[in-house]
Write a structure and sequence with these properties.
This protein is mainly alpha-helical. Helix content is about 45%, strand content about 5%. The protein is extended, with a radius of gyration of 20 Å.
Length: about 70
């Protein structure tokens, strides 16, 4: 007899909703108070998540162009 597998079409959406529910008391709209940043990251990040850090490199670029 063939096995029936069910596909969860909303897997990523449900995972995001669960993560957001974990931190709902620590955020105000889309913003995180600076005192809660570490806690929010600890709650939201899970193993194998990709994290991209961005910074302002305009100072480096300007000094490079001045030479």
């Amino acid at each position: 007899m063939p096995t029936v597998t069910t596909t969860q079409w909303t897997k990523k959406r449900d995972a995001k909703r669960n993560r957001m529910n974990k931190i709902s008391s620590m955020i105000e709209g889309k913003f995180v108070h600076k005192d809660n940043i570490v806690s929010v990251l600890e709650y939201i990040l899970e193993p194998y998540d990709r994290v991209i850090l961005e910074g302002n490199n305009q100072k480096q670029r300007r000094s490079y162009l001045n030479h």
